[in-house]
Amino acid sequence: MTDPVHIPAGSPDLRRWNDRRHGRVRYRLLVDADFGPSRGLTQGTVEFAPGDRENRHRHPDHSETVHVLDGHGEAELPGRTLPLAPGDTVFVPAGTPHAWSAPEGAMRLLFTFPADRLGEVTYDFEEDG
Do 66 and 109 meet the contact criterion of CB atoms below 8 Å apart? Predict the structure, then answer.
């Protein structure tokens, strides 16, 4: 059995993607088996500065749920781009190409995957084929 865990605000440390393949975002893993007890759930936040973007990708074996905590941005899905505002939630089925961006202002998202750790979630970026 997994014991309850308290994760204080501001921990663990922010990680960064800032390259041509991934795009530019900062993220923080909150619930992940690499840091403590987790059973079938990985959760974290992604922070976008104005103009930041997580490039188009898909997760072949995992669905993803994203909830907008702060700010405004866009979700790019097949055939449409959705405006995002605080309180919005997007469910992305496994294998669906998608991208997140904050073209005009900052945005912060809460993401959830049905996996013990983020390392189990495959990110196939568009350039990977």
Answer: yes
Identity of residue 72: H
- The domain defined by 23-128 folds into Jelly Rolls (2.60.120)
Q: Where are the alpha helices (DSSP H) in the chain?
A: none
Residue-level pLDDT, tens digit, the chain, 129 residues: 467 878 888 777 888 988 888 889 999 999 999 877 788 999 999 999 999 999 999 999 999 999 999 999 999 999 999 999 999 999 999 999 999 999 999 999 999 999 999 999 999 998 744
* pTM: predicted TM-score of the whole model, two decimal places: 0.91
User: What span, in angstroms and rounded, lies between the C-alpha atoms of 37 and 32?
Assistant: 7
